[in-house]
What does this fold into?
Amino acid sequence: MKRRIIIICATVITTFSVTGTYLYLTSQQTSAPERTSSISKKDLPTSKPKDSNQHDKDKKIGSNKENFKLETGFGNKTLEVGRLTGRVSQESVHKNKNFEIKLTNDKTVAAKKKENSKPNNTLPSKVKPGKVNPGKQEPTEEAPIQDINFYDKERVMDPIDAQLESLDIAALEEKEHLVIGADIAKLQNLITTNQLSYKELAGIYLNRIKKHDQNGIMLNAITEIIPTIIAEAEQLDNQNESNKPALYGMPVVLKDNIGTITLPTSAGTVALKDWVMEKDAAIVDKLKTNGALILGKTNMSEWAAAMDDGVPNGYSGKKGRSKNPYSSELDPLGSSSGSATAATCDFAAIAIGTETNGSIILPAGAQSVVGFKPSQGLVSNEGIIPLSSRFDTPGPLTRTVTDAYLTTNVLMDEASQTPLSKDALKNKRIGLLSDDESNEETAILKKIKKDLTTAGATVIEGITLEELEQVDADYITLLNADFKRDLNQFLQINRSPMSTLESIIAFNKTNPTRNMKFGQSELVASQNSTMTKQEADNVANELIHITQNELDSVLQNERLDAIVSAGVGGSVKFLAPIAGNPELTIPAGYDTESNQPKSLTFVSKRNTDIALLNMGYAYEQISKNRKNPVLTNQ
It folds into this structure.
């Protein structure tokens, strides 16, 4: 009996000891400081290891599905940023109100995937129902971003140096202050009054790219430079034309998915980095016809953020990762990140981007420039490497609303050159969306409301839009199907050296370190899509109908002329591109501590683009928020 009691007691003591030790160790782990940062004020779910077959459950467009750490050279500290791409989803725009940056002492950099624990039939997380990823291709190694941040410098520098040899650099730098922050009207006036020439203007931009993009803080926004722009500009100087078009002689940079016969067009890929198309995209023809000079191409999120969830915003295998010029700690956003950088840093008079869902508006807001996404169908996307031809829309990124207006007129073949009006907001009803930063009574928000009111608008607060989770999930599935079909057709029609998405996936595997540094699971998911053209058309028609009905009902029921959304969040930025409504993002201020740019986005009824630009202009003239970035090492 005593022996039995002794055995029982020993067993109980051992059990309590083991349990206590386990609980103590667990509490030590869970109480450790949280390393992952968030771009929302709400805590994000804890990261979990991601199974290779889990991809389609987790897949989001521009989702904040993961946080990744990027080592960017802050001594022994690591920059952590939440992920947001040019392909956005409703959940991501709700969460991504602010970019909160944390520095840690962890030197190890890894792209971590978060596992969505919800089952396939749960749609609020934008899981892809009924899809399995049969073999996600992972990169063979992971490296700090600083090691992959900058590829093929000579590709940009050689044509710059060759052309700058014929110019007086000291003279250019004496005139540089005239160009910084100048809009098209001011530049044309400087040239008309002989204070500047088109040749000098092009030279100043080339010199600034050399100093700040390819050297200095190495923003890495430019991927190609045309080797003849100085000669072309000099020819315009010699012609001395009268009654010149607004864009005459203005150097323009194009996102690297916009086709040109003079420069490679790659969509940021290594596979297509040397592919020169046989004709210009339709919008390039329009720009040239109106006297604009193509200066070069801009970096972008590879395949318009359709490569892999782990790819950082602004990263391409062709050129590396671009940076936000307002702070190396801030995300440049994508996928038209390089175009936004070129506009805000005066690397060209005008930059052109493309948007499928958020790819112009988000980087414009993050980098303090004006970004305009026209109504669907008003600007041709012919000759542009597609993500989804039914949604892809080119648009300008500029320093002022007027420049966006002048550029849009050219892109839309709009003959009217009626000046924008400072009184365009008078007696207008403007709805302030309440599902993003507009909930926060910040100093910037107070100024936004005051400026709108001062401009004559009536601000209607508390405007909300439905969270359409089924739209979110179906939209992701649709984009995968569209991308595969549209890309294959585009590559074959334009006689690309890579004729199919399948061949590009295979090419990437030949050198994973460079070609698919962060994987290519998005490409694989698109290749595995089995949705037919008719099925895709049916899904698209339904999504367009639902989103148009939602936006129209809010605009009509509240008798609104426009909806405005403060910050990078807001469901209107997800719904508007699907519905086809125009969007206009304008600088709204800067965070006093981080210098993070803040923005205000206007959305109006479809095909009211000129009216929307007028309202944006009226706000811009009252608010006067934008300031140039300081291009020094930060």
Remarks:
- The longest strand covers residues 67-74.
- Confidence is low (pLDDT under 50) at residues 1-12, 18-86, 93-147.
